């Protein structure tokens, strides 16, 4: 037979096999658009704005539907009721981490963010306990955040009211808080190692938010066989881990098991306790990945939220004026803000909540997976199926938040001006895989923003009417556009 005909026939057979496999697995899954072989529903998804694409599909197929992002099905949860039912009511069944080719290549199933099963449960339990012992959510860590806020103010004074890009400075503060917990020390803002770390973290978050990374997520083969920004990401992470490993070696040389100084010491002590356990999950490799996860997650999310908050303040001068009026009334200009002040500052509380709601930092949420075969709303979801909880659909719900595309602190205030809680506020996700650092992030956002507004007026380097608050990407993470601003001492 002619070789060309053999090739065509083989391709045709593979096409039919792919089509049959997709059809055979769709019978009991939630409804969804018909996928094409190999590429699935990629042509129906805007990778630059997945939120909008998923919202449009939910209007056709309902709050629980299936899309094929490549060859495998992903069950999408859209709207508060579906997300809450899955992540809270079926918390254990939906507590797995969905497969992501790039993170899997990087972490090898270790760490806090992309691990699963017994390893994830034990690592998360240990990390939460250790972070709490070092004061997360308590007065001791509040002292560290207050000190970092003071350093941040001094650094901002050095700008002398001149236009500057706040990205680096606003990233330094939360990074230093994490460093104090992990390494037992903070960096000066001009430290060369610190500058390199911040550069890599900023570059990594831009790469992860790119459309190319979304394509790699759906087509894993691209990672191994095609050039692209993912190679730069891998290089940055490798260099970061080399630095973390050096810190671990320093800790091992000076470790006092009776006086642990930080997270690394506690992990090393746990490793020593289990050194004779052949099945111990506490290894040096696991420590490197876990520390790297805490480092990245604890820096970028908070700094990006702060950066977005300042942009929103400049485009809403009335909000900024009310905030500073409340700060003057409750705290004044001399006393250091503390977490106890928050209960007396309903407008600041509302602004912080509205900022997180409005910016919708991680639109699609981190992918989950089914830990077992589940019957959910009369649909059969097999074990291992990727679950995508659309946090955007909750944060932008137009019944809970009238005019959700508008930045309005009134979404979290009652008629008397008191702070109003909402079950729809899920920027940290929900259920068993809710963000480990939620308490720390809330503390940092309040103390950093309040302290800065206590000492500075914010001024845009351009006419505020020309500022754009539209995210530059809405893929994995929503990043604000670049801008310059002036910090004018009060």
UniProtKB/TrEMBL annotation:
Cofactor dependence is on: heme
Gene3D superfamilies attached here? Cytochrome P450
Q: Does the keyword Iron apply?
A: yes
A Gene Ontology CC term for this entry? endoplasmic reticulum membrane
Name of the encoding gene: LOC109678430
Q: Which residues form the signal peptide?
A: 1-25
Q: Which residues participate in heme binding?
A: 435
- Pfam families membership: p450 (PF00067)
Which GO BP terms apply? organic acid metabolic process; xenobiotic metabolic process
Question: What domain of life is recorded for the organism?
Answer: Eukaryota
GO molecular function list: heme binding; iron ion binding; oxidoreductase activity, acting on paired donors, with incorporation or reduction of molecular oxygen, reduced flavin or flavoprotein as one donor, and incorporation of one atom of oxygen
SUPFAM superfamilies in alphabetical order: Cytochrome P450
Q: Where in the cell is it found?
A: Endoplasmic reticulum membrane; Microsome membrane
InterPro entries attached to this UniProt entry:
Cyt_P450, Cyt_P450_CS, Cyt_P450_E_grp-I, Cyt_P450_sf, Cytochrome_P450_fam2
Name of the protein this chain belongs to:
unspecific monooxygenase
Key words, A-Z: Endoplasmic reticulum, Heme, Iron, Membrane, Metal-binding, Microsome, Monooxygenase, Oxidoreductase, Signal
Q: Membrane topology type, per the record?
A: Peripheral membrane protein
Q: What EC number(s) is this enzyme filed under?
A: 1.14.14.1
Q: Which CDD domains match?
A: CYP2C-like
Q: Which family does it belong to?
A: Belongs to the cytochrome P450 family.
